Fold:
Amino acid sequence: MQKIFTAITFLIILISCKEQETVHKDYAKLSGTITNPQDSVLTVNSRSFNKSIKVNKDGTFSDTLKVDEEFYMLLHGDARTVVNLENGHNLEFNFDADDLINTAEFSGLGAGTNNYMAAKMKLEDEFKLGNPGSFFELEKPEFDKKLSAVTTKMKSLLENAKDLDSTFTAKEIEGNQRFTEYLASNYDAQHAILAPIAKGKPSPTFKYPDTTGKLVALEDFEGKYVYVDVWATWCGPCIQQIPALKELHKDYEGKNLEIVSLSIDKMADKEKWKNMVADKSLTGTQIMADNEWQSDFVQSYGITGIPRFILIGPDGNIVDNNAPRPTDPELRKLFSELEI
Structure:
C-alpha cells in the first residue's frame, strides 16, 4: 500500500511540476541584487517593450516579464547592459552599479548566453572594440599584435562558454570573423588618416569666429584641457547632447577645462546658428567653422559624422580624438583620471 501511495504521490508531483513548467513558459523571471544601487528602478526595454522593475532599498529586485524578442537593454542609473531574455528563463542577475562591466554575474535558467555576453563586454572594454580607430592609429607591428590577441581571446571565450544556442554561436563566429576581417582590410587606408591624430600627437588647430565675429583659436586655451564638440543645428543627436553638455560646463566651471562647441552649419545658416545659441542659452565657447565638412579642422580629424567630441591636452597634444559624449559616464571618469 505504501508503494502505491508513493508512486501516486510522485505522479501528482510530476504532473504538478509539468503544469508549473508549462505556465512558466509564458513568461521570463528576472531577479537579483544590485550593489550600490543608483535608482529605485531597473528598466528593461527594447524597440517595442518597456518595463520598470522596482529595486528595493537593499538592492534586491524581482519580476516576471512576457517577452517576444531575444535581447533587451537593461538600465539602472548610469549602468546599462544587454541581456538575453526568453519566456521560460528564470534568470538571476547580480552586479555592482558602480562597475557593471567587471561585476555582472548571471545564474539560473538562461545564464549561459548572458554570462558569455558579459564576458564579451569585458573583452570589448579591454580592447576598445567599440572604437576601431584605437586599432587603426597603431603602427603595423602593434596593430598585428593587438589584432592577433583579440582574435585569440574572442575564439577562446566562445569555445569555453557554456549552454550557448548553436544558432547564437554560429552568429558569433560569423560576427567575430567579419569584425577582424574589417580591421585587417581597412588598416592601410584608415591608418593614413588616424596616425597623425593619434593620442599624444599635436592637435590640428582652429581659428574660427564666435557669435560676435571675434576669432577664437585653439592656442587661446594653452595650459587648459579643451573639450571640442563638433555639431550642427540640423543634427538631432547633437541637440540631444546639449542638456548634458550644459551640465558638464556648470560642473567644471572654474576648473582647468574649456568646452568649445564648433558648428559646421552652412554659412547661409549662420543666423540660424546664432539664434539657437541664444535661444537655448548654450554655454562654453561657441564658434562656427568656415567651410562645413570641408573645414580644415574637420578634415584633419577625418570627421564624417556628428556629434564628434575631441579632447586636447594643456600642451596642445591630443588626449582622445574620439572622446566620450557628455551623456557617457566614461567622460567624467576620464576627467577624474586626468585630475581635471
User: Anything to note?
Assistant: The chain has a mean pLDDT of 92. The longest strand covers residues 28-35. DSSP finds ten helices and 15 strands in the chain.
